[in-house]
Amino acid sequence: MSTALIIGGCKGIGRAIAVRLASDGFDIIATSRKPNPDSETTEQLVHAQNRTFTHLVLNVTDADDAKKRLLPYLEGDLLPDVIVYNAGIAKDNLFAFMDSKEWHDVMEINLNGFYNTVQPFVFGLLARRKGRIIVISSASGQAGQAGQVNYSASKAALLGAVKALAREIGKKGILVNAVAPGVIDTDMTKELPKEQILPIIPLHRYGTCDEVASVVSFLAGPDSTYITGQVIAVNGGLII
């Protein structure tokens, strides 16, 4: 039985990934920072696909806490086949006015959280000689975005990490790729000025969480076995 672990998998893009991978036949382990109704809804949606759902509460910024919570899954039969890193926050501000907390909070979750939650699995994946690691980055990490120096820096760093890690562990049969969404209809984009953003997107609409999840499904599935170290953009043409 195949299992997918989604770090940050209980709402928005993470939930859509969980449900899509469940429909693909994966049992789902999803994490969130605290128990909430989002995890309950995700559990119901996964169960509707006749797959099992396990909810883990962990803080991605706390390396010791993360490893403790993930410990049962780091090797053996419980080791996930697919690991998706989707945890992330935005604290936008012009760099001239950005305070230290806005910078460090974004780096701690978007970048350091990747290390804290994914790195512990690498030895188990190497021993098994197969697996998929999929990182959710952003169009802002590909091209940069004014007012998002912290967010853009963290998401660009993830792309560098994906490319380097793919080189390190590819010979052991482990595929490492990134998905870079553009403007997706989520809670994070609710307050954005839509009338200013739509004209610069060639498809003239926001993307959906399901459209991001479909690319993750491809990278987790049998049709992507010769793809590693790549960044697949899901942005409606925002960055070409």
Give an account of the 3D structure.
This protein is of the alpha/beta class. Helix content is 41%, strand content 16%. The chain contains nine helices and seven strands, in the order βαβαβαβααβααβααβ. The chain has helices at 12-23, 37-47, 63-70, 100-118, 122-128, 139-143, 149-169, 194-197, 209-220, and strands spanning 3-7, 27-32, 53-57, 82-85, 131-136, 174-181, 231-234. Helix 1 (12-23) links the parallel strand 1 and strand 2 (27-32). Helix 1 crosses helix 9 and helix 3 (63-70) packs parallel to helix 4 (100-118). The chain is globular, with a radius of gyration of 17 Å.
Write a concise synopsis of the structure shown.
The chain is an alpha/beta fold and 240 residues long. It has nine helices and seven strands, in the order E-H-E-H-E-H-E-H-H-E-H-H-E-H-H-E.
